[in-house]
Write a structure and sequence with these properties.
The complex is a heterodimer of chains A (818) and B (122). By secondary structure, chain A is α+β, with helices and mostly antiparallel strands. Chain A has 20 helices and 34 strands. Chain B has a two-stranded antiparallel ribbon. The chains are: A alpha+beta (818), B mainly alpha (122). At the A-B interface, strand 18, strand 20, strand 22, strand 23 and strand 29 of A face helix 3, helix 4, helix 5 and helix 6 of B. The structure holds adenosine-5'-triphosphate (ATP) and magnesium ion.
């Protein structure tokens, strides 16, 4: 068998797990307690000693302030976690590192070596700063090489890597302690493709716990007249105790029909005792479960899929052990369940499988082999291959490349002796490509044989290689679009979701205003955003590249080119590089890469802004008698109230609630935006009709077959969007059609003169007036001379000088680019 | 940096991967994987590809991006349109010596890809 070992780790909010794959079987790693799950808890005692997992959990009740959990949710923020007894603060990534170190130790105990590399899973909807924090934690824990995989992708791999050739859509439903992920995947001839992710970063088992806690608190008040409040910092220890007891009850109810909640001395009058039945649980959990189902349905609808199109539904995560959840999800969604998978360890197993795909052998690098003078080979091949006939690529390295004792021809022989390649001569670069044949669904070991020009065997190093045949995922795909916010509040997309990592792209932008060299006040901001929205301000700001006047070698005028390159490595680490060709200077420093803070002040400010917006919308909707919009606005009130509660809880010390509030506010904004779209729908439709007619006119005149075909497609898409009342899609299709039409229009002899007149009329609003006026003069001369090419150049330059709307720019994180 | 309307031709995924527009998903994955491996061991033959506007440098990023583009059915259609349009220009090409034995190419029935890469096929 093969010697390589692959390690996967599921770093969970509540529980973590590790698994090892040896090319044939995946096995869970046991911790010192003998269990596969390690609670994601870290304890730091008064003397600064650290304990992890089950041992930390024991102190939850005795010494609660010394134990911290749920730090995964704070990854990538500036939040610090206190250990008052030790007088210490720790960043979330430091606590995650402690946990990873402990798991690494468990793995070492099981496989005999400390793993050098591993694959760690992260929620699909993690943003860049959270991803970066996870990598940092892994490095702190002593891993040299780490790759990240999205949790649902890992689950899908675990569920399907040995499935028979199947083609179709799968849905992975992962409800964890704190996050809900749902993913659509597509399998095709053994290739696993991520279609899309949905979910909610703030929905999980703990929300079920809170729903039960609130219910218990209400009963306590009604039956015993005792009031405890989640907003009151003084009540926090009691609430914590209650929540932990409630969680045990919830878990018990997965196996039993009823369970009792017993908290000795919890009430001033004595014990708190309460029986909870499955019916109670169902009533309390149903709304949350239904929310997850709605998210699934939305994801399906977005991809024009029906539940019947889903071939496999994979349920993962602790709460999916609840029978009532499984039944409700399957029934509401109308998709049968996949049963054979352990919902608690699937993610770790999938991560280990992926480590094999990525060729990340966990064992320490072998010391240079001392077995005599073997020729060194540089081999490349997929470690896991869906393809039954992949290629092995290789090259002989070293000085002497010809002659006696030097390989001239290579053969690969499968160890089972049932297949071998032809002898293949090395090419002029001493390289070769050999197609091999794999036995399905198992590790295939090949010997590498070599002969010199005299036909004598030559020892080579390495002398064997392994390819596992199974489902494969070639490159980790990006789960959220990344782009740059422009002053117009549009987003220049750099990487679309699904883009395989690593990736790098360059675009040319232009500055909006002059940045004077040496000035302290002048600043060119390049905001990098993540999210699917067309408008920048709705996306999440994940980093900013700032170029200050005082760093500049020369003044950069408005309209100057900026060549911006964004780069993402396999783990989703972002780097940016801006080249200003005019002054030949490069800037690379990203100002910050943090989940923005959710301070109380900023939360209340944006809360009241949203409130005002909501009011304004209501007034407009009433005036326009838009009953449907009013209804939808009313439906937002619950969300709105939840934000208010979360802001209050944040003030009471619950940092996570603050993050959740900010997230929900963003979502509210997006929904308001959509509703605004509805209010403006009649106008939008009118505009769409006009633009389609205009474009079709010019395409008829000047378009080629290909353009006309694309136009037909866009027009059909617009038609569909109009029927479905999908404003965003309509805008997208129309702008595609309009671009085609505009292109055709430019072929008309009168096009550029007309565009010139338009731009000239605006010239007085340009940033650089003298230059604009000079261009207008130049343009007039070109019109007189009939020099179209010159005129085109002038107009394009003029466009770069015209101002962007100030308001849009402010919303677009003050972007200095167009 | 090539302007977008040029890049649209020179970076067409079919050119980057050396595949013909009708190729199957499996061919796409195999071609991409093989090119990435060739680039990783620094094989000269992989470092350049042919476009209607002349040869261009092939990088691992371009290959990955091209693979992603072709995996997405709606985007693939657009690239197919463009690629078939310039195919007349792209077809005649000077074959290079083959690092792959003809026998292998024959067996895996993968002529199109290798021919497009400029390799000799039976
Ligand atoms: N048998 C069970 N029945 C019901 N709920 C359970 C059961 N076991 C665990 N849970 C709940 O599952 C949650 C933890 O789930 P899980 O371990 O999958 O989360 P996680 O992986 O740590 O979180 P995330 O994936 O969000 O990072 C907790 O809320 C816990 O109460
Ligand atoms: Mg999980």
């Amino acid at each position: 068998m093969t010697d390589a070992l692959y390690v996967g780790i599921d770093l969970g909010t509540t529980n973590s797990a590790a698994a090892v794959f040896d090319g044939d079987r995946v096995e869970s790693v046991r911790n010192s307690q003998g269990t596969a799950l390690t609670p994601s808890l870290v304890r730091v005692d008064g003397s600064g000693r650290v304990t992890i997992g089950h041992r930390a959990r024991r102190f939850l009740a005795l010494d609660p302030t010394s134990v911290r959990g749920e730090f995964k949710r704070l990854m990538g923020t500036r939040e610090q976690l206190d250990f008052p007894a030790a007088g210490l603060h720790r960043r979330p990534e430091e606590l995650a590192a402690e946990l990873l170190r402990s798991l690494r130790h468990d793995i070492e105990t099981q496989i005999g070596v400390a793993p050098r590399c591993a694959v760690i899973s992260v929620p699909a909807l993690f943003e860049l700063p959270q991803v970066a924090a996870t990598r940092e934690a892994a490095t702190l824990a002593g891993f040299e090489v780490v790759e990240l995989i999205q949790e649902p992708v890992a689950s899908a791999l675990a569920s399907g890597w040995r499935a028979d050739d199947s083609s179709g859509h799968w849905m992975v439903y992962d409800l964890g302690g704190g996050t809900f992920d749902v993913s659509l995947l597509e399998t095709q001839g053994g290739f696993l493709n991520v279609v899309a992710h949905g979910g909610d970063n703030f929905l999980g088992g703990r929300d079920l716990d809170w729903a039960i806690v609130d219910w218990v608190l209400a009963r306590m008040e009604a039956e015993h007249g005792v009031t405890l409040s989640r907003e009151e910092p003084g009540d926090a220890p009691a609430i914590r105790r209650l929540k932990s007891a409630v969680e045990d009850v919830k878990i018990e109810l997965s196996a039993a029909a009823d369970a009792s909640l017993l908290l000795p001395g919890f009430l001033p009058s004595g014990h708190l005792e309460l029986t909870v039945t499955r019916a109670d649980l169902e009533r309390l959990c149903a709304p949350l479960i239904d929310r997850t189902v709605e998210i699934c349905q939305r994801l399906l609808a977005e991809h024009r899929l029906r539940p019947a199109d889903i071939e496999r539904l994979v349920l993962v995560g602790g709460p999916t052990a609840m029978p009532l959840l499984r039944e409700r999800v399957a029934a509401r969604l109308g998709v049968p369940l996949q049963r054979e998978l352990d919902p608690m360890t699937a993610v770790a197993h999938g991560a280990a499988l992926y480590a094999a795909s990525a060729g990340l052998d966990a064992r320490p690098r072998a010391a240079n082999d001392a077995r005599g003078p073997a020729a060194k080979l540089w081999l490349r091949h997929p470690a896991v291959s869906a393809d039954l006939k992949p290629h092995v690529v290789g090259k002989v390295t070293g000085a002497a490349q010809q002659g006696k004792g030097v390989p001239e021809t290579i053969r690969l022989r499968r160890k089972d002796g049932r297949w071998e390649s032809a002898w293949t001569d090395l090419n002029h670069e001493a390289g070769f490509i050999i197609g091999v044949e794999l036995e399905p669904r198992r590790p295939n070991v090949f010997e590498v044989l070599a002969r010199d020009p005299d036909g004598a065997p030559v020892p080579v190093q390495p002398d064997q290689l392994t390819i596992v045949q199974g489902m494969s995922l070639s490159d980790p795909p990006l789960s959220r679009r990344i782009g740059v916010a422009l002053a117009s509040d549009k987003v220049q997309v750099y990487f679309d979701r699904g883009e395989p990592l690593p990736a790098r792209r360059t675009f040319r932008h232009h500055t909006v205003e002059t940045v004077a060299a040496g000035s302290d006040d002048c600043l060119l901001k390049i905001p990098i955003v993540q999210g699917e929205f067309e408008r920048a301000h709705l996306c999440r700001l994940v980093g900013t590249l700032e170029i200050r006047g005082r760093e500049l070698k020369g003044t950069v005028p408005a309209g100057a080119p900026v060549e911006l390159t964004l780069e993402l490595d396999r783990g989703g680490n972002l780097s940016a590089r801006a080249l200003l060709p005019d002054i030949d200077q490069v800037f690379e420093e990203i100002a910050h890469l943090l989940v923005p803070e959710a301070s109380h002040a900023s939360l209340t400010a944006s809360f009241s802004a949203t409130e005002r917006r909501l009011q304004a919308m209501r007034t407009r909707a009433f005036r326009g008698r838009l009953g449907e919009v009013i209804e939808q606005l009313d439906a937002l009130v619950d969300t709105y109230k939840a934000v208010e509660r979360d802001i209050a809880a944040a003030a009471g010390g619950d940092a996570d609630a603050g993050l959740k509030a900010r997230r929900t506010l963003l979502e509210l904004d997006a929904q308001l935006e959509r509703l605004e779209g509805q209010v403006e729908w009649p106008e939008l439709k009118e505009e769409a009709r006009w633009k389609l007619a205009w474009s079709s006119h010019w395409l008829e005149k000047y378009g080629n077959d290909h353009e006309n075909r694309l136009f037909e497609e866009a027009a059909a898409g617009a038609d569909r969007a109009e029927r479905e009342q999908d404003a965003v899609e309509l805008e997208r299709q129309i702008s595609m059609a309009y671009d085609l039409g505009f292109n055709a229009f430019l072929r008309d002899p009168e096009a550029w003169p007309a565009l010139f007149e338009n731009a000239a009329a605006e010239a007085d609003r340009a940033h650089d007036l003298p230059r604009a006026h000079a261009l207008v003069d130049e343009g007039r001369a070109a019109v007189r001379a009939g020099d179209r090419r010159k005129l085109e150049r002038v107009v394009r330059k003029l466009w770069t000088l015209l101002p962007a709307e100030a308001r849009q720019r402010q919303r677009a994180f003050q972007s200095g680019l167009r | 940096m090539e302007p977008p309307h040029i890049a649209r031709i020179t970076q067409n995924p079919f050119h980057v991967l050396g595949l013909r527009p009708g190729c199957s998903r499996a061919e796409l994955e195999r071609a991409g994987q093989t090119l990435l491996d060739m680039l990783a061991v620094d094989m000269r033959d992989a470092r350049e590809y042919m476009t209607p506007l002349g040869p261009r440098a092939r990088t691992a990023e371009l290959v990955r991006h091209a693979m992603a583009e072709l995996r997405e059915p709606t985007r693939r259609v657009v690239h197919e349109l463009w690629a078939s349009r310039d195919q007349a220009a792209a077809a005649p090409r000077q074959p290079r010596t083959s690092p792959l034995s003809d026998d292998d190419a024959e067996r895996d029935g993968w002529h199109g890809g290798f021919r497009a890469l400029g390799w000799r096929t039976p």
